[in-house]
């Protein structure tokens, strides 16, 4: 059956080539016996029409119906994002445990906690690595190709996830140093996954459902956060039942059993599994046709790869690729005046909105446990043993992920190609601003035990509208509006700007959220502005994000070449 199909396709291709040659010989002559101009040929050839794109292979991708390969690509790219989110956010589940194990102080009325500088490093070092990885691998993806770099990032994530759990040292400082070292390189690999996954999915997708497909890849982040919480619940429940321990206030030493040291290591190491499971399939994916045709300039390879994927015959059209690439309009660099003129405001829009969003999003995510403790949703640490505390923190964060984070992502997936990116981002930032101020101004009201559930509901809504809003759209849009040869680089720059915001949130919120009263601050921390004022600051940041959204263009229903200007004809200037 397969051989017959190949023979039929070959015969069809041969007949079409003969027919095209005959049409060319008969049609190249105009009514006066002369030859038609290039402009007249382009007007007759729909594959050269700027409204439909320059190349047949790109037209075929833009107009392709949703097929099995689309879902395969979503799963392959999405499992990388599952791993990304698991690895980045699981650390917040075990930082309290690390403090109890390695920084216990004899005679202290409260369990040990990580010193400020250590806590900041453990929570933030992976974000620093992610920022560096986004810039480096984003650039490399435009130089070497999306596929070649894709496998490198995945293996780096796998190896460093395992190594993080094997962190060693003869004293606490040694363990924390090796943990931070491996988590930096873990973040470096995770950083590469952002621009590459987004770019690959955008270049594989059709223009009708492209936003939903890219958002679906990003939505796997929600399952990664949820998966981390669920796994931490399971491990802590198993260890707590096997190794009984009294609360800290009953026996400070026995409240942290020696086996607790395995809990955080297992939680960190399991992040390698989903990435390992998809490595083979990630390596089997063909290079995207847009990179092969528009950057590598190999139309034959692009047509061959996409013919297999789409299961249709596609002409190579090498001459058209050469014609497009020879046009100086399509060769400007990232730091050129032409790029600044065409895409400068776009890049400012994608970087500023992602930066502002991640300040709020990561500060809330990484320090949920502190907020929940402040309002009394998690019992005081001294009333629990070490493993029970992990269980309580994981349960609270899992509930937030299940009720708001995950649904928010999938609302975006199903509605982004109907509502548009701009509308969803504007709505998300606006609602986050409103809910943050609702939490902040009457903050003392929310701290009363009878109002805790109401606080959690409104707090959850901020996460819902972050994910049914800018957390998804800031990932989608940079993969759609820049030229193919700069797409991965510009997405990496936008994502790195976001991670810079995450670092500001992760490091800054540690200090900002401390009580104004020096007697009520966490040990080792200077007085801050308090949780209430910190929430007000986050509300203002969300408001700025709302305003910066107006710099971002709408891409709904448009081809990538239409958005980037890569389908403009050389004669475009003479039409005016």
Topology:
Layout: H1 2-27, H2 38-44, H3 56-63, H4 68-89, H5 91-102, H6 116-144, H7 146-165, H8 172-204, H9 210-242, H10 260-269, H11 272-284, H12 289-295, H13 299-310, H14 318-326, H15 337-366, H16 368-374, H17 386-419, H18 421-440, H19 443-446, H20 452-467, H21 470-476, H22 484-512, H23 530-548, H24 560-564
Helix pairs in contact: 4-8, 4-9, 4-11, 5-10, 5-17, 6-7, 6-8, 6-22, 7-8, 7-10, 7-11, 8-9, 8-22, 9-10, 9-17, 9-21, 12-13, 15-21, 15-22, 15-23, 17-18, 17-20, 18-20, 18-21, 18-23
Domain Major facilitator superfamily (MFS) profile: 73-557
Pfam families: Sugar_tr (PF00083)
Region (Disordered): 1-54
Description:
This protein has 576 residues and is mostly helical. It has one domain: MFS general substrate transporter like domains (Growth Hormone, Chain: A, Up-down Bundle). It contains 24 helices and no strands. Helix 4 packs antiparallel against helix 11 and helix 6 runs antiparallel to helix 22. The protein is globular and about 75 Å long. The C terminus is likely disordered.
